[in-house]
Specification:
The complex is a heterodimer of chains A (about 700) and B (about 150). Chain A has about 700 residues and is of the alpha+beta class. Chain A is built from 17 helices and 28 strands. The termini of chain A are far apart. Chain B is α+β, with helices and mostly antiparallel strands and about 150 residues long. Chain B folds into 2 domains: about 70 residues, Roll (Ubiquitin-like (UB roll)); about 60 residues, DNA polymerase, domain 1, CATH 1.10.150.120. Chain B has a 5-stranded mixed β-sheet, with helices on both faces. The chains are: A alpha+beta (about 700), B alpha+beta (about 150).
Chain lengths: ~700, ~150
C-alpha cells in the first residue's frame, strides 16, 4: 500500500549555494503547538551539486543505530547512492522536534523511528519527485516515464540519465508537489536490508568523539562534590586545602554542590578530596529503603486509582475455587552508562555554548538558559556521541553543573562526574510494591487478574497526571494485558518518598515485564498447564503476540529435552509498539544462576535495519538480565548505599549468554526496538528459574539465598 | 618532567608523578580514545598496553611506567586494519562504543598471547571489561573471527 502526503503537509524549498534544501513542515502533527505558532517539526536534507546528500540528524546516537536508520528512511524514498550520504547533528532548535514528543528534541521511549519515519520518508519522497519533474521537463518527457536509481533520474526509453547533483538548481525552482506517493514496502531497496552502521568505523579506532572527549581552548576540568543525602545542601565549606593542590584554579559553589576546577581531571579530583564541606543534610537524612517499602506496603492496603476494570475481578477472586495473592517488590535501579555524566560549557557575557552527550537537546537548552541567565537565542547546544543513555541522559543536571561552573569562573569548563557520583546521584528506576491476585476456574482457565501497584509517578516527570490519577507509563504491561481473561482490574497508587527517579530503559514495562509474566506463569503452573500453551490459548485475540510466542517457542525447542539441571522459561509482552517474546535456558547450582542462552522473537512492524534490531534485542536482554540478577540501589540514611561497579555489579563476558534473535516478518507500522527486550528478559529468566528449582521469584534482584535448599 | 613512549612517539609531560596514566594520556597528551569509566580498575574502559601487557591506566601512576612502551587504541594499527578492528566492523560489534577501545586492547593482548583463544580464554581475558550495551556475544564472535577460527 502506498501512502500519500497529507494535504496539510507543506514543504519549503530553497536553493542555497547550489544545493536543494528541503525542510518538512507538518503542522497537523500537533494542533496545540501549532495554534501557539511554535511547533515546526522539520527534517532537512541537502543535495549538493557534487551529488552529496547531507541528512541532518535530530535523534542522537547512543548505540541504538539511529545515525544509520534515520538516513536509510530518507534514502529509500530518495533513491540515492548510499555511499554518498553524509550526516550532520542538528542543533537544539524546535524545528527539528520529534512529533512523538510534542516537538521536543528527545531521543527516548524507543521513539526515533516511531516518531520520525513518516517525516523522513516524506522528505525523501518529495525531493525525489521534484528531481524527477526537473529532469522530465528538461527532456520534454512525461514524468511517469522516468525512474530513479542511485542518485540519478533515468529515462529508460531514450537511455537518458541525469545525476541529482546536476538537477539541484532546476529542482529548487519548482513548486512543492502536494501529493507524493511513498513506496510500497515490496519495492524497498534499502529498508529491510542490513546496512553497516555508519558510526562503527570510528568506534574501533578511538576517533569517535564522546562528550567527555570534547576539547576547547583554555578549557578547565571540574569535579563537583555533592551532598550524599538527597535534598541536602552546603552548610559551610573551606576551600583552603583544595586550593593548595597544584593545578586547582577555582573552587566555586554551584546549586548541586562545590565545583573544584583545575587544569586537569586528576588535579580536580585531588582538590575535591581535599575539600572540607559541612552539609545541611535536610529532611531525608534518616530515610531507609525499609521505611520506603513499609510505607508502600501500607498504601497497598487501600484501593488505588483504576487503570483498567473488566468484569468483576475482586468478585471473581473471592468466588473462585483456586485463587491466590502474591506480592512483588522491585528495587531502585541506576542506569550506569559507561561514559560518566559530563558536560562542557563556555559561558560568555552574550552567549553560552554547551557540548554535551544528551538524549534531549531541548531539555539541555532549557537548563543552559536557566543556569546562564541568557536568552534562548544566545544558547548553542552542540551534541556528541553518547557513551550510553538508557534514559539517564534525558536529564540535564550535568548541563546545569557545567553552565553554572563556567559562569562562576568565566572559563570554558568540562564537568566530569565520578562513577560514584553517577551511581549515587542518578534519577533511579522507581522502587515498586505490587500486589497481584489471580483466580482459576475448575478447568484451569484463568478467570481473574488483579494488580495494585504502588510507585512514584513517571508521568509526573513530564507533566501532571491525568484526571483519573493513573500513570499509564507505570501500568504499561498490566493495563495493556493481552490475555483473554474475563475479569481484569489494574490499580495504581502514586507516592513519592523524595528519592530522584526517572526513565530507565523500558521504564514502567521494566517492572511489569517481570511482575505480569511471572504471575501469568504461576497461574499456568498452578493450573497444571504448560506455560507456553497456557499463554498461547489466551492470545486468540492477539495474533501478533501469539505469532511471536509461537516463534520463540519453536526456535528455542520448547518442550524438547534439555541437559540435566537445565530448564526453560518463557515470557511475551508488548512494549513501545513492538512485541517481544523470550525463552531463557538456565541452570541453578547451589543458588547460583547460570543463563545458558536466550531466544528472542520480535515483531516490530516493517523493518529498517535488521541487524540493528538484533543488536538491540541482544543488548536490551543483557541489560534486563543484569538488573534481574544483580541490580539494586538501596537507601540508607537518605543516601545511596552503593558506590561503584563492585557493589552495583554488571553482567560480564563470563556470565553473558548468547541471545538468538528472530524477526517476525510484518507490514505493521514500525515499533520501538531499544527497550522492549529489557522489559521481557526478567520474566523469562524468573520463569526458567522456577522451572529449574520450583521456587518462584517475587523480589528482585534474584539472590542465591532465595534459591538454595 | 616525565618521559613517555606512547604509540612509538616520545612525550615529555610535566605532571604530578601520582597522576594515573589515563589522565596523562587524555589530558596532557590529548589522546582521547582511551576512556574513563570508573577510576578503580573495575570496568576496563581505560585499558592500554605496557610493553604489550594490558593494564588499567586509571590506576597506573605515570611514575610507574618508566621506559615501557605505552600503546593506546590510537596505536593499535595506523589505519584501523588490525585483525580485531576489521573483525569488530564485520561483526558490527559496537553499540554506544564507549567501552570498545578497552575491549579491543584487552582482546589484542589476548590474541598476542593466544592466537587461537578458546571461549574459556576469552572469558578469562575479557571479563574485566564491562559493556553496558551488552555486546559481549559479538565481541566473542569478533575475537574468534580475528583469530581465524
Amino acid at each position: 500500500m502506498a501512502s500519500t502526503l497529507s494535504r496539510r503537509t507543506f514543504l519549503k524549498v530553497s536553493a542555497a549555494g547550489g544545493a536543494l534544501v528541503i525542510s518538512g513542515y507538518i503542522p497537523g502533527l500537533n494542533d496545540t503547538a501549532e495554534a501557539a505558532g511554535s511547533f515546526e517539526p522539520n527534517v532537512w536534507l541537502k543535495i549538493g551539486a557534487d551529488d552529496t546528500v547531507t541528512i541532518t540528524l535530530s535523534q542522537l546516537e547512543m548505540g541504538q543505530g539511529v545515525m544509520t536508520s534515520m538516513p536509510m528512511l530518507v534514502a529509500e524514498e530518495l533513491d540515492i547512492d548510499w555511499n554518498k550520504i553524509k550526516t550532520e547533528w542538528a542543533p537544539a532548535d524546535p524545528k527539528y522536534g520529534n512529533p512523538n514528543f510534542g516537538g521536543a528534541q528527545l531521543t527516548a521511549g524507543s521513539n526515533s523511528v516511531r516518531g520520525m519515519w513518516k517525516l523522513l520518508r516524506e522528505a525523501g519522497g518529495t525531493a525525489r519527485a521534484m528531481l524527477v519533474t526537473a529532469a522530465a521537463k528538461d527532456w520534454s518527457v512525461a514524468e511517469n516515464t522516468c525512474s530513479t536509481e542511485k542518485g540519478e533520474v533515468i529515462h529508460k526509453a531514450t537511455g537518458r540519465r541525469a545525476r541529482y547533483g546536476s538537477l539541484v538548481d532546476k529542482a529548487a525552482a519548482l513548486p512543492v508537489p502536494k501529493d507524493v506517493s511513498l513506496k510500497d514496502p515490496k519495492d524497498f531497496r534499502l529498508l529491510g536490508k542490513t546496512m553497516p552502521r555508519l558510526d562503527i568505523p570510528e568506534k574501533v579506532n578511538g576517533r569517535a568523539v564522546f562528550g567527555i572527549d570534547v576539547k576547547r581552548p583554555n578549557m578547565l576540568i571540574a569535579r563537583v562534590v555533592r551532598c550524599p543525602v538527597f535534598g541536602g545542601k552546603v552548610a559551610t565549606f573551606n576551600a583552603d586545602k583544595a586550593k593548595e593542590v597544584a593545578g586547582v584554579r577555582h573552587v566555586v559553589q554551584i546549586s548541586s554542590g562545590i565545583a573544584v576546577v583545575a587544569d586537569n581531571y586528576w588535579a580536580a579530583s585531588k582538590g575535591a578530596q581535599a575539600l572540607d564541606v559541612k552539609w545541611n543534610e535536610g529532611s531525608l537524612a534518616n530515610l531507609t529503603s525499609a521505611d520506603i517499602m513499609k510505607k508502600y506496603k501500607a498504601l497497598a492496603e487501600q484501593p488505588g486509582k483504576v487503570a483498567r476494570n473488566d468484569g468483576d475481578a475482586a468478585g471473581a477472586v473471592k468466588g473462585a475455587g483456586r485463587s491466590f495473592e502474591r506480592v512483588f517488590e522491585l528495587p531502585f535501579l541506576a542506569h550506569a552508562c559507561m561514559e560518566p555524566m559530563n558536560c562542557t560549557a563556555d559561558v560568555r557575557s552574550d552567549r553560552c555554548d554547551v557540548w554535551v552527550p544528551t538524549q534531549g537537546q531541548t531539555a539541555s537548552a532549557a537548563a543552559a538558559v536557566a543556569a546562564s541567565g541568557l536568552p534562548a537565542k544566545a544558547v548553542n547546544i552542540h551534541t556528541t556521541y553518547l557513551g550510553g543513555g538508557f534514559g539517564r541522559r534525558g536529564e540535564a543536571d550535568f548541563v546545569t553543573d557545567a553552565v553554572e561552573t563556567s559562569k562562576a569562573t568565566g572559563k570554558p569548563v568540562k564537568v566530569i562526574w565520578t562513577r560514584e557520583d553517577d551511581i549515587q546521584h542518578d534519577y533511579y528506576r522507581p522502587v515498586s510494591y505490587v500486589r497481584m491476585w489471580g483466580a482459576l476456574d475448575p478447568s484451569g482457565k484463568p478467570v481473574a487478574f488483579m494488580q495494585r501497584l504502588v510507585q512514584q509517578s513517571l508521568m509526573k516527570r513530564l507533566g501532571p497526571l491525568p484526571p483519573n490519577g493513573v500513570d499509564f507509563i507505570s501500568v504499561d504491561g498490566s493495563a495493556t494485558l493481552p490475555y483473554d481473561i474475563p475479569n481484569i482490574r489494574v490499580e495504581y497508587t502514586e507516592t513519592d518518598p523524595g528519592i530522584p527517579y526517572g526513565f530507565w530503559r523500558s521504564v514502567g514495562a521494566s517492572v511489569q515485564g517481570f511482575v505480569v509474566e511471572g504471575f501469568i506463569d504461576e497461574l499456568a503452573t498452578t493450573a497444571g498447564k504448560d506455560p507456553y500453551q497456557f499463554r498461547h490459548d489466551l492470545l486468540s485475540k492477539h495474533p501478533r503476540h501469539r505469532a511471536v510466542l509461537d516463534l520463540v517457542a519453536e526456535k528455542s525447542g520448547w518442550g524438547k529435552p534439555l541437559p540435566a539441571g537445565h530448564a526453560r522459561g518463557i515470557a511475551v509482552m508488548e512494549a513501545f509498539g513492538s512485541i517481544v517474546g523470550e525463552v531463557a535456558e538456565v541452570s541453578v547450582t547451589n543458588g547460583a544462576v547460570r543463563v545458558h542462552k536466550v531466544w528472542c522473537a520480535v515483531d516490530t512492524g516493517w523493518v529498517i535495519n535488521p541487524d540493528t534490531i538484533k543488536a538491540q534485542m541482544e543488548g536490551g536482554t543483557i541489560y534486563g538480565l543484569t538488573a534481574a540478577l544483580k541490580g539494586e540501589i538501596t537507601i540508607q540514611n537518605g543516601r545511596v548505599a552503593q558506590h561503584h561497579f563492585n557493589d552495583y555489579p554488571m553482567i560480564r563476558h563470563n556470565e553473558a549468554p548468547e541471545v538468538e534473535v528472530h524477526i517476525v516478518p510484518s507490514t505493521e507500522k514500525p515499533g520501538g526496538i531499544g527497550e522492549p527486550s529489557t522489559a521481557v528478559a526478567a520474566g523469562a529468566l524468573a520463569n526458567a528459574i522456577f522451572a529449574a528449582t520450583g521456587k518462584r521469584i517475587y523480589t528482585l534482584p534474584i539472590r542465591a539465598e532465595q534459591l538454595r535448599g | 618532567m616525565i618521559s613517555l613512549n606512547v604509540n612509538g612517539k616520545r612525550y615529555d609531560v610535566d605532571v604530578s608523578p601520582d597522576m594515573p596514566l589515563l589522565w596523562v594520556i587524555r589530558d596532557a597528551i590529548g589522546l582521547t580514545g582511551t576512556k574513563f569509566g570508573c577510576g578503580l580498575s573495575q570496568c576496563g574502559a581505560c585499558t592500554v598496553h605496557l610493553d604489550g601487557e594490558p593494564v588499567r591506566s586509571c590506576v597506573t601512576p605515570v611514575s610507574s611506567v618508566g621506559a615501557r612502551k605505552v600503546t593506546t587504541i590510537e596505536g593499535l594499527s595506523p589505519d584501523s586494519t588490525h585483525a580485531l578492528q576489521t573483525a569488530w566492523v564485520a561483526e558490527q560489534v559496537p553499540q554506544c562504543g564507549y567501552c570498545q577501545s578497552g575491549q579491543l586492547m584487552s582482546a589484542a593482548a589476548l590474541l598476542a598471547k593466544k592466537p587461537k583463544p578458546s571461549d574459556a580464554d576469552i572469558d578469562a581475558a575479557m571479563s574485566g571489561n564491562i559493556c553496558r550495551c551488552g555486546t559481549y556475544q559479538r565481541i566473542r564472535r569478533a575475537i574468534h573471527r580475528a583469530a581465524g577460527v
